[in-house]
Structures are given as C-alpha cells and as structure tokens.
Design goal:
- The structure holds three protein chains of three kinds.
- By secondary structure, chain A is mostly helical.
- Chain A has one domain (3-91, 103-228): 3 helical TM bundles of succinate and fumarate reductases (Up-down Bundle), CATH 1.20.1300.10.
- Helices cover 71% and strands 3% of the residues of chain A.
- Chain A has helices at residues 3-9, 11-36, 46-57, 59-90, 105-112, 114-137, 154-161, 165-192, 201-228; strands at 143-146, 149-152.
- In chain A, a hairpin with a 2-residue loop joins β1 and β2.
- The longest helix of chain A has 32 residues, at 59-90.
- In chain B, the strands form two sheets. In chain B, strands 2-1-5-3-4 form a five-stranded mixed beta sheet. A two-stranded antiparallel ribbon of chain B has the order 6-7.
- Chain B has helices at residues 13-17, 55-68, 140-147, 169-179, 186-190, 197-208, 211-214, 217-230, 241-245, 253-268; strands at 23-32, 41-50, 90-92, 95-96, 118-123, 131-133, 136-137.
- Helices cover 34% and strands 13% of the residues of chain B.
- The termini of chain B are far apart.
- The longest helix of chain C is centred in the middle third of the chain and has 27 residues, at 387-413.
- By secondary structure, chain C is of the alpha/beta class.
- The two termini of chain C are 45 Å apart.
- Among the domains of chain C are: 266-428, Succinate dehydrogenase/fumarate reductase flavoprotein, catalytic domain (Flavocytochrome C3, Chain A, domain 1, Alpha-Beta Complex); 517-628, Fumarate reductase/succinate dehydrogenase flavoprotein-like, C-terminal domain (Methane Monooxygenase Hydroxylase, Chain G, domain 1), CATH 1.20.58.
- Classes of the chains: A mainly alpha, B alpha+beta, C alpha/beta.
- At the B-C interface, α1, α2, α3 and α4 of B face α3, α5, α6, α10 and α12 of C.
C-alpha cells in the first residue's frame, strides 16, 4: 500500500476524514442558514427566491455544491463503515449491564449514538433534498418574479410544505438529532486533529454548545415560524417533490 | 525487653474482634465460560462479605465456598492487590474496575456496596481480548503494540550522564502522568468501540515528551498505530469513556497528542510505507 | 560442587574494574549460537534478558504473568539509590557501599556490595536514556530525596511509582529485543524444574499455564530472576503469585539456599482488618519523615480505642507515648526498618495496640500539619493566623507531599488520615535471603545464575530503603551480562542442547509425577487454607522475634502441616488445563519445605542481626545483640529429600575495608 492510502485507511486517518468532512459540513450549515433565514423575511419570497436562483445558477457555487455532496457521502459512508468496524471490534458477546461514563454527560451520550444520530440526519437530508432540491432539479416548481427576472418559486414550495404538520415534525426531529450530533462532533473534530489543550479545549467545548444549540434552533425556527406565524395558503399550487400535494 | 511472641498478627483473637464489622449478604451474577470455544452464561451465587474486604477478597470467599462444595472456583486474574500491576480484568455492574473512579478492582472495598445488593461481574469484552476462562482474558495485544515501537532504542551501557539533558519539570510531569498507565485494558473494555487509543497514546505521549524519545517519535507512532489497527481494535470516536474509567485517570489529551504525532509523522517523515 | 565466593583479587575499588578488564569474552559469532534461558521478567529478569539480547545471545525469557509488565517490581514505591552525589552532600560510591554494609548489619559480602554501589550510577543514566520519567527540579535536572536512616540525599524517584517506571523501562527494552527477534518471550509459563546435564544447568521444565502442557526448554545456561519468598508468611506486601518454586526446585537440584531466615518486616503497613485478608499494603517509608509514631500510655485508653469507644484524637498529648522518640532520641521516628518494627511489636505486646485486633500503632501527622502550617502562614505574612487557618495551610502542605498515599489509605481503610491519625503495623516485605551465589552471581550449580531478590548477595541481614530496585537493575543490566560470559566462554564448543535428551525426559516425568500426586490427593481442605495456616506458624515462630523453643515447635508444626497437605489437600480440575488452584498448590507445596528451612536457619543463627531477632540474644535495653566472632558467615543450606537434616555450608565473611560496629540509633 502506498503511504497515502495507508495513512487515510489507518484508524487515525479514517478519523481525520470524519473530522475534516465534518468541519466542512458545519461551515456549510452556517452558510446555508444565512440564506434560509431569508424565508422569514416578510416579502412574499422575493429575497429567498433570488438567493435560491443565485445558489443554483452560479457556476462556482455549483462546483462547491458538488464538493459538498461528495463530503456528505464521504462523511456518511465512512461513518457507517466505522460503525460496522467498531461493532465487530466489540466482539460477539455484549455486556449485560451497559453504562458509559464519560468526561461530559451530553457529549458522551451523543458520542455513543453518533451513528444513529448521523443516520437520522441522513434520512432527514434525503427527505429535505427530495422535497426541495429534487423538485427544483426536475423543474416541478412554478416560476415567479424576482425583481424583474424570472425565477423558480421555491418560496411557495417551502411555504406549502411547512404548512403540513408532519413535515414540520420531521424537521424538528432532524434538528434535535443534529444538535446532539454537533455537540459531540464539533469538539471531536478538534480532538481528532490533535487540538486539545487545557487552555483552549474549554473554549472549543463552549463553541460546540453554541453551535449545537444555535444552528438547529435557528433552522427549526423556520418551519415553526411558517407553520404558526404565517396565514394559511389560500391556493395551494400544484408542484412536485415528495411532499408535493 | 521483648518477651515471648504470644501476641501476633494472625492469632485467633483477631477473628473474634472482627465480628464488630458489619456483614453484608450479596448476590453475585458472575460470567462463567469454560474456554473461548464454549458458550458462556451467568451464574448466580450468594456470598456473605464484610465491609472492610476488598472486592477480590470477597471473590476469594466465594471461591473458598465453591471449593468446599467441590465445585470449580471462578477464574479471575489478580496479583499485586495494591492497584499497580494492572492484572485484574473484570467489569463490575457495567464499569471496568467498578464504580469508584480512579480505583482498580483490588482497591475497591465492599463498604461501597449495600447489604442485599446484586452485583453483576463480567469479563472485559473486546474482540482483541479473547476470553480464556470465566473472567480471564488475553491482553497480549498490548504487548505487541509496545513491541511495535513503544521504547527508546538504547542499548545498555550507551547512556550519557543522567543530567546531561535537562527536562523541563512540567513536561517531565506530563510524561510521567502518561507513563502511569498500568496496561490493564480498562480503556478498551469501557470503550463502546473497543478502541485501544488511550493505551497506545499514553505510551506515544510519554516517550514523545522526553528529549530522548523524541528522536524516534515518528517511527514509533507509525509503528504502534499500525500494530494497534492490525490487532483489530475499534476506531476511537472520542467518547472519553476510557478516561472516565481509567484507574490511573490517564487523560484523552494523550489521544489528541498521538493524533497530532501521527498526522505529522504520516505527512512529513521519510518512512514511505 | 563449587562453593567459593570467587571474589577477584585487588583492592576493593579495583576488583570489578580488573575483573571486567581481564575476563574471558564470547565472540559475536559464538554469541549467536549460545542460548540463555531467563526465568522471571521483573526488574532483574527483564533487564538481564534485554541486555543479553542486545549482546547477541539467543535468549528465551519466561514469566508466569500474562505480560512481563506485571512483575511485582512494579509495586515498589519509594525510589532507587545511586551514588551520583548530584546534591553535593558528600555522597560517593564508598559511602553508598558503607551504608549498605552497615544497614545490612555486617552480614553481606564486601566485594559484591561495592560493585553494586559502582553500578548504581550507571543505572540512573540508563533509566533516563530509556525515557523513565524520574522526578526533576525546576531547572530540569534530576531530583533526590533522603530515605531510611542515611545522611545523604541519594534517592531518585518517580512520585510513588518508582518501581513501576523502572520496570516499564526494562520491559520496553525487553520488548525491543523481542521485536528484533533476539529474545523469545514465553508468557504464562511457569518454571517447575531445572534440568542438569553433566552437572551443569542446561534447561528447564515449564508448564504452559493456559494449556497445562509441560514443555522442555534447553539452553547453555539458565538465569533465575524469580524474586523473593515473603509469601511463605501468607500475609505480606508481596503480590499474590510471588513464590519460591523456581529457587526451591533449584535447591533440590543442588543449589544452596543462603540465609533464608533474613526477612525484612516493614514497619509502615496498613494493619490487618480481618481473617479474610489476602495481602497487606505498604505505606511508603517516607511517611516517617513527618509522621510521629505513638500508642496511649495507659492500657485503659488503648482498650477504649480497641473497642471503638475512643479515637486517637481523644487522647490528650500528655497521655501519649511517642515511644520511638523516647527510646531512640537520636534518630527518633527515623530509625531503620527492623528497629521500628520491633518497637511496634513491643508496644502491642504490652496491650497498647490501637485497632480492634490490638495490632496497630498510630502514625500521627498533627504536629507536622501544625509545623508546616505555621511556616506557610509565616511565608504568606499571616503572623496572627488562627489555629484553624494554620491547620488548613499545613494540611495542604501534607497533601502535596503525601496526597496519593493518604488517598490510598482512605480507600483501603475508609478512614480519613487528615482527621484521625493513621494506623500502621509491621508486615513482611522483602527477603534478604535467597539462592547462594558467588561473585559471578552463579549458584553452586554451574551454569545456573541468580539475580535480584532471588539471590542473597547484597543486603546482608537487612535491606536499606530504595536498595531493592538498585540491586535488581544492577544485576540485570550491569553485572550478569558480564559475569555470565565467564561461564559461557567455556561453552563455545558445546553444541545446541537437545531438549529431548534423557535428562530432560526424566525431569519432565518427575514434574508430571508431582502434578499427579497433588491433584490425586482429592482431600477436603483448600490450598488457601493450608497456606494461611503455614503463614500463621511462620509469623508466630519465625516472625519479628524468634527463640529456640518456638523455632523447634514451629518446625514440627510445619512438618505436620506438610504431611497433612499431601493427605488432605483438594485441587479441583486437572493438570491439562488452565488451573490456577493447581498453580497455587505447587507453590504452597514448596513453601511448606522452604518454611521449614527458614526455621532451621533461624535456629542455627544464635545471634540477633538485622531482620533476624533472637530473643535470647538481646542487650539489657532490648536491642539486637550481634555475635561477630561466631556468626560472621553466610549460611548456605543444602537440602536433600533423602536426608532428615539439611546440611550447612559456611561462607566466612571477610571484612577488609569496614570495621564491624554495633549499630546504635540512640
């Protein structure tokens, strides 16, 4: 084996892949949130639709987005592969009494369930992408006007979805899973990179709490806002996507 | 003047006076397994213990009881019984070395249990620690990890004067704290992934922090991590159960240091394989 | 049979230098063909195996543990002596030599001890080079502390885990040789016999403890590094598996057992709490630097404490007897181990013991807490600090110095030693006696060598603190790898030894017979119960104080117990499987003979010296009375199963460099 593949397939190399892809995905979450918060702008969707058009049309962003998909897949499959490997390492006989003590209660509980949380998040992503991204790709979304230019009316599509309680519920569940995943994942990524120092690790853990709370809460606020605060849609347009009515 | 040796440590009156200590009735749920090939199961036993006994002495009482009934005693490993040899290898109510933090099984005393309690006792469980009998497991994988580089290559007689290279006190202390590992394997037993990162990193970290060990640090970390992977230990996911259960309270900062060392060794050393 | 000390000529300080300069060497091409078996991989064994491997010999190393890292050397707390004179306080090789000879009550061989002192400095260098994290000062240089009754500060340490760190250093050196293929490691193998061919030791019979299989291992030479026999007392600070079997089996093959009665009883151990007790835990001797030892002056107070009606702190200052300070004003609480232990026994024999068993004395830190508290308050400019504040500050200082020991005490006893004085009592800790070896560390069987605690060579009748680690490593790293060459240089024409030769087959059959015999008894009593009873006999009649009548009684009781053992012991399971009870039974069987030899030796030595105190031989004040004119010899015992009485061989000790004096600590 060549040194590079050996490095990446070693236990620490595999963790490194998880760490770097994870950190990249967190940075994406921040950017994505900034855009999505425009759904809460009370302008009938113009800002959001403009943003969506820019995101899908710009070639640089497009390239980055393919990188993003690759990262998601790498993170998910590497994670699942590790999970299987770790189950095997545990041996066939399991402990009768199961308890796990760790340095931090929440992070430790999350750490034990990273694979489950990750799978939940992956399932959420499939639903999420199927409902919006796929709908856009297949041009099942009607057009709207974005400051004089035509654009797909993703806003109305989102609005329609988030007026269905089970969609909102699915998002809430997804975000709870994300919160726990982030709480452990963030500090874990730094630990894997070797960034553990008595002076700075408390700050990393603090940041992990902030990220784990702020990002999912802000994301969850969008469907909740649309479900509770916005008026019922008078006419529901015909559109595709898995939750299309 | 010393006259006669009538009174001594082990005279019988010591038996009388120890009745002052409170006794406790316990139910033990112990894992019994003849060998690696046969199936194992839990067996229940009643035992009367005293509060000042150590956990292992309580097991001694059980074994004496079993022997008097001409049954096979429970096999468990132990040796120094003062918390330093790292031989004991059992999981008590779900915790390697029991609930008390920073304590080995042999230093765990029965006063921390309640009269009438049921205690579950299992062996360390991990694919890389194959079971030998009852509570005894094979931890030779740890030896092989050390053999893969957990040393400084110096022959007897080659050493310069001990004070030739000063070592900063705090760094020496850090190295010592990592070197305090007793190689018991509780970290692997506690880890939901059966990872040996805490053990391996403790040695990497200890030696990397001495100027003498720094010289072959890159070769060492590559060799030891490689061996650790070959032994089939799981992948660390930073659960930190290892640190929480470690009887010597070895810190996961050592794992971070090993990650660092491994990254830099993989990317910058001349080792091409 | 060889029975010469083989000490080289020349002045004391030149002997070892000259020896190394003139000894025969084995050329590298021959070393590759020569095999050496090392039994035991503690400090002495691991260091010897690693060094022999480095030199190019083909080494086979054996341990009954699952890994060499578990050997009981790991439990040594205090430190290791070396004549480095880093503290500029007048230390030297000669002074370390002199202190060791004197501490050993003039019952050790001058040349060996001097060599030990010479090697001591190299050990520290070697350990540092191996990465052993010894304690350091802020300037980055090695720190020292003072220890047990010497006037210089020469003890190197790694917190309270010096033994662990040094053992891991040796273990790592051994691991390196294993990975290089120079040493083949046999874990979970116990040596059950030594095999001789043409009068020379040529191999061992070992039992694979996992499968129960007997294995024949051949080599040009055999080195035993199998530790001490303190477990003959059942209760000791030794690990549970420490035993005399390897040494005792060698005795049966013609090696002599030297000075078996010299047992070190350590004064500061946690007292026995009950009949179930399996082992005793040592509290480092360093505690006596700050702790004051006392018992109540009146028996009534002692009784009240024994019945838990009173506590140590309830006894007024004037009602306490600080007996060490009273009896030994010059050294006070810092008298050597043997003196402190006997004084504790005297106090408890008078009925003044302070635990429910009546067998404990107090070790009190209250004065030290106050002293340190005041000085700390002063340094913080708190000139009118309240007593509570002083106590708080003083407690912090004590915690910094002894925190881990106090914590261990609390874990084991459930009592807080910061609030109540600690209770301590003496316990068996180390055995100075062991296989007789000459200057080459060769036993009376050619080709059979012995290192570390297993041999008798360096500590005389009493070992000084922090000297055991020094001796184990000196033997393993710096002495044996040279001296074994003297024997092996004569073996370069000897072909590979055949483990199928008839001597090996006979020895294997003998061992098998022994296993079958013990398993075949199928009696009613457990091995443990025999061991416990043996311990009681040993402690009663061959413990801290001995007399002719008791020793005779004890010897008889051991003989009877041995007879009973072979009639009524019960060993479950069989020989062809993993069977810890069988392992234990074999060890106890050998203790049952060794114990008798100890009684014989203690009876023969009609004097008091070091760890051996004969009640008939004491001064008016109850101090040990040595009889140099008659007993300045090493007792080397030959044991033959066919004879009723073991045969005594005397090696007269010649003191050319030190004057024999009576130790006085008053």
């Amino acid at each position: 084996m060549n040194w590079f593949t050996k490095f990446l397939t070693s236990s620490i190399g595999q963790k490194l892949v998880m760490s770097l892809t994870g950190l990249f995905l967190i940075s994406f979450l921040v950017v994505h949130l900034a855009g999505n918060l425009q759904l809460m702008a009370d302008d009938g969707g113009v800002a959001f639709n403009t943003y969506a058009k820019f995101m899908t049309g710009n070639p640089v962003i497009k390239t980055i987005s393919y990188g993003l998909y690759a990262m998601i897949l790498l993170h998910a499959f590497q994670g699942l592969a590790l999970w299987f490997k770790n189950r095997k390492a545990r041996g066939s006989e399991k402990y009768a009494v199961k308890v796990t003590r760790g340095a931090d209660g929440v992070a430790t509980s999350a750490a034990k369930q990273m694979a489950v949380l990750g799978t939940l998040i992956l399932a959420f992503l499939l639903i999420h992408m199927g409902d919006f991204w796929w709908a856009m790709k297949t041009e099942a979304v009607p057009m709207a006007d974005c400051g004089g230019e035509p654009c797909q009316d993703l806003y109305t599509k989102v609005y329609a979805s988030f007026k269905q309680w089970w969609v909102v519920a699915a998002y809430i569940v997804g975000m709870i899973a994300l919160a726990f995943h982030l709480r452990h994942g963030f500090w874990s990524a730094f630990q894997t990179l070797g960034w553990n120092h008595p002076k700075y690790t408390p700050a990393i853990n603090g940041a992990a709490w902030v990220i784990a709370l702020v990002l999912p809460v802000a994301y969850a606020a969008i469907p909740l806002y649309m479900y509770f605060a916005l008026p019922e849609m008078t006419t529901v347009p015909e559109m595709g996507g898995i939750f299309g009515s | 003047m010393i006259v006669g040796s009538s009174k001594s440590l082990q005279t019988d009156n010591c038996q009388l006076t120890t009745d002052n200590y409170s006794k406790m009735k316990l139910t033990l749920k112990i894992w019994r397994q003849k060998n690696a090939k046969s199936a194992g199961k839990f067996e229940s036993h009643q035992v009367v213990a005293e509060e000042h006994m150590s956990f292992l002495e309580m097991l001694d009482v059980l074994n004496e009881q079993l022997i008097s009934e001409r049954k096979e005693p429970v096999a468990f490993e132990h040796d120094c019984r003062e918390g330093i040899c790292g031989t004991c290898s059992m999981v008590i109510n779900g915790h390697p070395h029991g609930l008390m933090q920073g304590t080995t099984t042999c230093q765990l005393h029965m006063r921390h249990f309640k009269d009438g309690e049921t205690i579950a006792i299992e062996p360390f469980r991990a694919q890389s620690f194959p079971l030998i009998k009852d509570l005894v497991v094979d931890r030779s994988a740890f030896d092989r990890i050390i053999q893969a580089g957990g040393y400084i290559s110096v022959n007897t007689g080659q050493a310069p004067d001990g004070n030739a290279i000063p070592i900063e006190k705090d760094q020496a202390l850090d190295a010592f704290n990592a070197a305090a590992c007793i190689g018991c394997g509780a970290c692997v037993a506690a880890c939901p992934n059966s990872s040996a990162m805490l053990f391996t990193s403790a040695k990497v970290s200890h030696l990397a922090q001495t100027p003498q060990g720094e010289i072959e640090a890159q070769r060492r970390v590559l060799g030891m991590v490689n061996q650790m992977d070959e032994e089939g230990f799981g992948r660390c996911s930073n659960v930190t159960a290892c640190e929480a259960e470690c009887p010597k309270e070895i810190s996961v900062t050592n794992i971070a240091r090993m990650n660092r060392e491994y990254l830099s060794a993989s990317l910058t050393s001349d080792v091409m394989k | 049979m060889a029975f010469k000390s083989n000490v080289p000529d020349g002045s004391l300080s030149d002997k070892w230098k000259n020896y190394r300069g003139k000894m025969n060497l084995v050329a590298p091409n021959n070393k590759r063909r020569i095999e050496v078996i090392v039994v035991g991989t503690g400090l002495a064994g691991a260091s010897a195996a690693a060094t022999l491997g480095e030199l190019g010999y083909q080494v086979k190393a054996f341990t009954f543990h699952d890994s060499p890292r578990r050997a009981h050397s790991i439990a040594a707390q205090g430190g290791i002596n070396a004549a480095k004179n880093y503290q500029n306080d007048g230390d030297s090789v000669y002074r370390l030599f002199y202190d060791t000879i004197k501490g050993g009550d003039y019952r050790s061989r001058e040349a060996n001890v001097h060599r030990l002192a010479e090697a001591s400095t190299e050990i520290i260098d070697q350990a540092v080079a191996q990465g052993v994290p010894l304690a350091r000062e802020y300037g980055g240089l090695l720190a020292n502390r003072s220890f047990g009754g010497v006037q210089v500060s020469r003890t190197f340490y790694a917190r309270g885990q010096t033994g662990q760190q040094l053992l891991l250093g040796a273990y790592q050196a051994l691991s390196r040789q294993i990975s290089l293929g120079n040493v083949t490691m046999y874990n979970r193998h116990e040596m059950l016999d030594v095999v001789k061919q043409d009068g020379k030791a040529r191999g061992i019979i070992a039992r694979n403890l996992l499968t129960g299989e007997l294995e024949r291992h051949a080599a040009h030479s055999v080195v035993l590094c199998t530790g001490g026999y303190g477990n003959v007392f059942y209760l000791s600070t030794n690990a549970m598996m420490c035993n005399v079997t390897a040494a005792w089996r060698s005795v049966k093959k013609g090696a002599y057992m030297a000075n078996p009665c010299y047992t070190q009883i350590h004064p500061t151990c946690i007292p026995v709490s009950g009949e179930y007790q399996s082992k005793l835990t040592l509290m480092s001797e360093s505690l006596r630097n700050d702790g004051r030892v006392w018992v109540p002056k009146s028996i009534d107070d002692a009784k009240a404490i024994q019945q838990k009606k009173k506590k140590g702190i309830d006894i007024a200052e004037g009602d306490r007897d600080y007996y060490l300070e009273r009896r030994y004003p010059a050294f006070g609480n810092l008298v050597p181990r043997d003196v402190a232990s006997r004084a504790a026994k005297v106090a408890c024999d008078e009925g003044k013991g302070v635990s429910p068993t009546g067998l404990a004395v107090f070790l009190d830190f209250a004065s030290a807490i106050e002293r340190y508290g005041k000085s700390k308050a002063h340094s913080m400019n708190l000139y009118d600090a309240s007593p509570a504040k002083i106590k708080e500050l003083g407690t912090a200082v004590i915690e910094e110095k002894y925190g881990n020991l106090f914590e261990m005490y609390e874990k084991i006893t459930g009592e807080d030693p910061y609030k109540n004085p600690m209770k301590i009592y003496p316990a068996v800790h180390y055995t100075m006696g062991g296989l007789w070896v000459d200057y080459h560390l060769q036993t009376s069987v050619p080709g059979l060598f012995c290192c570390g605690e297993a041999n008798f060579s360096d500590h005389g009748a009493n070992r000084l603190g922090a000297s055991a680690l020094m001796q184990g490593l000196a033997d393993g790293y710096f002495v044996l790898p040279y001296t074994i060459g003297t024997f092996l240089s004569g073996e370069i024409r000897t072909p590979k030894i055949d483990p199928n030769a008839k001597e090996f087959m006979t020895a294997e059959a003998e061992v098998k017979g022994r296993l079958d015999k013990i398993i075949g008894v199928q009696g009613k009593q457990s091995v443990e119960s025999f061991h416990r009873r043996l311990g009681k006999i040993m402690w009663e009649y061959c413990g801290m104080a001995r007399n002719a009548e008791g020793l005779a009684k004890g010897r008889k009781q051991i003989q009877e117990l041995r007879e009973e053992f072979y009639k009524d012991v019960f060993v479950p399971g069989d020989a062809n499987e993993y069977n810890p009870e069988l392992e234990k039974a074999l060890r106890v069987a050998d203790f049952l003979e060794m114990g008798e030899l100890m009684m014989v030796d203690a009876n023969d030595r009609e004097e008091s010296c070091g760890g051996h105190f004969r009640e008939e031989y004491q001064t008016e004040e109850g101090e040990a009375l040595r009889r140099d004119d008659e007993y300045a010899y090493v007792s080397a015992w030959e044991w033959t199963d066919t004879k009723d009485e073991p045969t005594l061989h005397k090696e007269e000790l010649v003191f050319e460099n030190v004057e024999l004096k009576t130790r006085s600590y008053k």
